[in-house]
Amino acid sequence: MQLDFFPSRTLTIYLAKMFIVRIIAVLVMLVLVLMMLDLLSTSGDILAVEGNGQAQLLTYASLRIPQLVSRFLPYSVLLATLITLVTLNQNSEVISMKAAGLSAHQVLAPLLLTAALVSVVSFVFNERVVTRSTATLKTWDAAEYGVIPEDSGVRANVYLTDGDSVLSAASLTGSRDTIRMRDVTWYERSETGMILTQVRAPIATYAAPGWKLEQAVQFDVGTAQSSEPSDMTVGQSLTPDDIELDIVDPDTKPFWELSESIEAYEAVGRRTAELRAKWWHKLSGPLSAFLMPLLGAVAAFGLARSGQLFVRAIIGMALGFAYFVIDNAALAMGSFGGYPPFLAAWAPFFLFLLVGETVLIRTEE
């Protein structure tokens, strides 16, 4: 029995089924509570737009729920681990399994397998669903919850530089020559950074070269006068390729597309530390669910009647939340170059993998 990593088939299915049911239950509870709190703070802004109603609230919820699921799935695995192991301990099932000759790792093996499958599902869900909902929600937020752009490649809050001048847009759809910007502002600046002219337009399209502003309104700062030129083209040196490079948002790009963007950045000599750290974290982030049974394992062992079961559960929870804190801090350090991207994304994972294994071996094996 000691040479087998998994216990019997019946026991493996029993533990895995118990674990996955609790993961789903905790995740649903967290998402529902957080979604209600989110709607309390956001529904006023959504309903303030003329024509918005219950349908728009449901649309917002459908876009926000995938983000909440992605963010709190590892927390759900941690809490489900503690609930499962505490229940098994209180019912003396852990003692029975160890008396039958199972090691601590064998007791945890079904939970680790389930958590690994959850990590795989989380990765696919993030790349296929969450990236798209995040892109749409950011653009809708930038449009102040007005009309939602139909293009699935929407991007929000675009900020581009053309020499000393600046071109900004609330949202952008399309690609290459079909790029279309909305709520555009062009700032023509002097070499000292002073704004000479400000031009606003609802729409901007590629004019090859430059960008044609439709229904533009120009304000001259020096004379404090406004005008409405019939035709105006700005940003002569800005090409679709430049824009594709300047608007890369790692939260809205799938793993494989972000790889291409990073290669394009590196080809023109741009800094890629932040993008590379986010790229690695797209792998290490979902895999954090695999760590949770190991970090929460301290709650499984020790006699329940000893009075230390609650303390053990608190220790397991503290280890899990410490991982999330350090993971976020390391990712932030990697984003501005404090850590190498690979180290920023993977160091917390391997550190707490060693911590969890050390605690388990020292105390139970």
UniProtKB/TrEMBL annotation:
Sorted keywords for this record are: Cell membrane, Membrane, Transmembrane, Transmembrane helix
Which InterPro entries does this entry report, sorted A to Z?
A: LptG, LptG/LptF_permease
Q: Name one GO biological process term.
A: lipopolysaccharide transport
**Stretches that traverse the bilayer:** 12-37, 72-88, 108-125, 283-303, 309-326, 338-361
Q: Which NCBIfam families match?
A: LptG_lptG (TIGR04408)
Per UniProt, subcellular location reads as: Cell membrane
Please give one Pfam family short name.
LptF_LptG
Under which name does UniProt file this protein?
LPS export ABC transporter permease LptG
Q: How does it sit in the membrane?
A: Multi-pass membrane protein
For this record, the Gene Ontology CC terms, alphabetical, are: ATP-binding cassette (ABC) transporter complex
Keyword Transmembrane (UniProt) = yes
